[in-house]
UniProtKB/TrEMBL annotation:
This is Uncharacterized protein. PANTHER family: NO MECHANORECEPTOR POTENTIAL C, ISOFORM D-RELATED, PROTEIN ACCELERATED CELL DEATH 6-LIKE. It holds the Pfam family Ank_2. It comes from the Eukaryota. InterPro entries: Ankyrin_rpt, Ankyrin_rpt-contain_sf.
Length: 201
């Protein structure tokens, strides 16, 4: 049953995070797919967006046919990377990444994968994503043909750049639509002490 905004009871329970209702609904009908509402959001997307590790874990553990869609081509994995630091709860993070491996290469309307967002925001746990599929670092966005490595370098995220290069070293040669590789961005954005190790290697 949905309302006029295509929200199910589970959608409505996401905010303000009524965990007891979420547990009851998902246990009573674990096979219900819970499709997107009028805002393009599924309950799993909303749980990740709301930064609730408990809700993410409950949905993953109790639901067998869990949809993952979000607005503008995004998925629950995009939302997790954008909004969710998991507050040190790596179990919730790894459960989501592990159960939704196929989403790692899904691009949104800008051509950004979850890896792009992790690199842009300098997420320290980007290695958890890359360990699932290193080839996702080769995907370039729609407009500027930038990879995750370009974005991390352009934002000055030295640790993220080092992580990407250590797990997917072949992507260092990729160039954007200006023919810039990641070093062009690093030279423009990094502090000298962060740039020296890259130039030596």
């Amino acid at each position: 049953m949905v309302n006029n905004k295509k929200n199910t009871a589970l959608h409505d329970a996401m905010f303000p995070g009524n965990m007891e209702v979420v547990k009851i609904l998902t246990r009573e009908d674990p096979d219900y797919p819970y499709s997107a509402n009028d805002y393009g959001k599924t309950p799993l997307y909303m749980a990740a967006e709301s930064e609730s590790s408990d809700m993410v874990l409950t949905l993953l553990e109790n639901c067998t046919s869990l949809s993952h869609e979000g607005p503008n081509g995004k998925t629950a994995l995009h939302a997790a990377v954008m909004y969710f630091d998991f507050k040190g709860d790596h179990h919730a993070m790894r459960q989501l990444f592990g159960r939704k491996k196929s989403l790692l290469k899904v691009t949104d309307q800008y051509g950004w994968t979850p890896i792009h967002y992790a690199a842009y925001h300098g997420k320290y746990w980007i290695n958890d994503l890359l360990e699932i599929d290193q080839t996702a670092t080769n995907i370039a966005d729609k407009d500027r043909k930038m990879t995750a490595l370009h974005l991390a370098a352009g934002r000055g995220h030295a640790r993220t750049v080092e992580t990407i290069l250590s797990l997917a070293p072949e992507c260092f040669e990729l160039v954007d639509n200006r023919r810039w590789n990641f070093l062009h961005y690093a030279v423009a954005s990094f502090q000298l002490q962060d740039l020296k190790p890259l130039l030596r290697n």
